[in-house]
Write a structure and sequence with these properties.
Elements: E1 2-4, H1 6-21, H2 28-51, E2 56-62, E3 66-67, E4 72-80, E5 86-92, E6 98-101, E7 104-109, E8 114-123, E9 127-131, E10 134-139, E11 145-152, E12 155-160, H3 163-174, E13 194-200, H4 211-217, E14 221-226, E15 232-238, E16 246-247, E17 250-251, H5 252-269, E18 273-279, E19 283-290, H6 293-303, H7 315-325, E20 330-335, H8 341-351, E21 359-365, H9 381-406, E22 410-414, H10 416-432
Parallel strand pairs: 3-12, 15-18, 15-20, 20-21, 21-22
Antiparallel strand pairs: 1-11, 2-4, 4-8, 5-7, 5-10, 6-8, 9-12, 10-11, 13-14, 16-17, 18-19
Helix pairs in contact: 1-2, 3-5, 5-6, 5-10, 7-8, 8-9
């Protein structure tokens, strides 16, 4: 696309001055037509010539996967392919679901010079989107025309649940700082762990002493245990109407998927088998538990574009499906919501098909904004009504939790910023106590 420049409009304005002067100097008005025609021809010819130039080569580099609702870095590598300096404007058209800062900028490049320019991308939702092309503008000869050219075509990009939280978890684990996110791993193993080796006593728990081996060696010896691995972990995700609700402007399903991702990563690193069941009124995805990072990647591909629908979930059908296909005792984590005792009773009845064989946790997202309505100060009538409604709603949720526990089902409820940490902590406790 050939665009006019301020210089061209300034020269056109000179022609207007000449035309006005023609009212006083006969014959000048005839020059204006020729003058404007020359400007138009020069603008067109220089623009056509500049369109053929291979000005720059640009490569867009993003993270291997984009994470939703966190800052992702996009880097543009720009190389001047001309033999002389050039100034260009760059605009990277980001996906519709993203906010961007720094994706449009001006830059001057020396001959054959390569630079890197980065900007921040903040996706607001998961799924398959696309960069809508990368465009540049650069001046033609004489400065009468600016050329707009598409350098990169539309490019698909996938936005996943929060992968960066997994990277942070792994970094903290490697550096021994998991306590920074509220996780604490006990060094005392459970009774069901596997024997690994013997070693000399060194202020260990007395319950780990092997008295027979100590008697044979004439000194205290303790047993080393390693945590059992290859146990089953099944993640069940409700994508029905219960997950349409929003907390902090984000749907409950998205909060649950973020927590599920971190939980599955922790289970995979512990050597356990991880599987997936995704359902509403029908089962949409079933992935049988297996070990390994490729299994987590497979599950991630299955859930990255999942969307909740205004459909009543069929818990009986979903857990009946699971009961018929997975028999090994496992930890079953169900991401759904039960806002009152009636919904909890319905969920408990359906879970009765699997709770005798498996250890079941129901995970729910709580809304931190409810705490704002529980202030001891009530300035007006509206605040009184808000507080009464909040207490009524919280009471219903508490009764739902009690109903689940009365049926032998573990209930875990946390605010979004604590959900993943609480869930991983519960999983580590299950492993420590050898409950599966």
């Amino acid at each position: 696309m050939i665009l006019p420049t301020p210089r061209l409009w300034a020269l056109v304005a000179v022609g207007i001055v000449i035309a006005v002067a023609g009212a006083f100097v006969p014959g000048l008005e005839g020059i204006v037509i020729f003058y404007n025609l020359v400007l138009l021809i020069l603008w067109w010819l220089t623009g056509r010539m500049a369109k053929k130039w291979d000005v720059v080569r640009i490569k867009r580099i993003t993270d291997p996967v984009l994470s939703v609702r966190v800052r992702n870095t996009v880097t543009l590598e720009i190389e001047n392919e001309l033999q002389y300096p050039i100034s260009i404007k760059v605009r990277d058209e980001v996906p519709e679901n993203c906010l961007a800062k720094g994706n449009e900028f001006s830059i001057k490049l020396d001959p054959r010079k390569r630079i890197s320019q980065s900007y921040v991308l903040l996706p607001k939702s998961r799924g398959l989107w696309e960069f809508r092309g990368l465009y540049i503008r650069y001046p033609a000869l004489l400065g009468l025309a600016v050329i707009q050219k598409q350098v990169l075509p539309p490019t698909p990009v996938r936005v996943y649940p929060n992968i960066k939280a997994v990277q942070e978890f792994e970094l903290l684990k490697q550096t021994g700082h998991l306590s920074l996110i509220g996780l604490r791993q006990s060094r005392m193993k459970g009774l069901g762990t596997e024997f690994e080796s013997l070693r000399e006593y060194n202020e260990d728990d007395y319950r780990k002493i092997d008295w027979k081996a100590s008697a044979r060696r004439g000194k205290l010896v303790v047993k080393n245990f390693e945590q059992e691995t290859n146990q089953g972990v099944m993640v069940c995700v409700d994508i029905g109407r219960h997950m349409l609700g929003e907390v902090d402007g984000v749907r409950k399903l998205d909060h649950c998927l973020d927590a599920a991702l971190l939980f599955m990563h922790a289970a995979e690193r512990a050597g356990d088998q991880v599987g997936l069941l995704m359902f509403n009124d029908v089962v949409h995805k079933y992935i049988q538990p297996r070990r390994g990072a490729t299994q987590v990647a497979r599950i991630l591909e299955a859930i990255y574009d999942a969307q909740a629908e205004p459909i009543q979930p069929d818990y009986v059908a979903a857990f009946g499906f699971l009961a018929s296909r997975w028999k090994k005792r496992s930890l079953v984590v169900v991401f759904t919501d039960a806002e009152n005792s009636d919904q909890a009773d319905e969920l408990s009845l359906a879970l009765s098909q699997i709770r005798r064989r498996h250890l079941v946790y129901v995970v729910r997202v709580s809304d931190p904004k409810l705490r704002e309505f529980l202030s001891p100060e009530i300035p007006d009538e509206q605040a009184l009504f808000d507080q009464a409604a909040a207490l009524w709603y919280l009471g219903d949720r508490k009764r739902a939790e009690i109903a689940l526990k009365n049926m032998g089902i573990n209930s875990l409820e946390a605010e979004p910023d604590r959900l993943a940490t609480e869930l991983v902590g519960a999983y580590l406790k299950v492993k420590r106590l050898s409950l599966i």
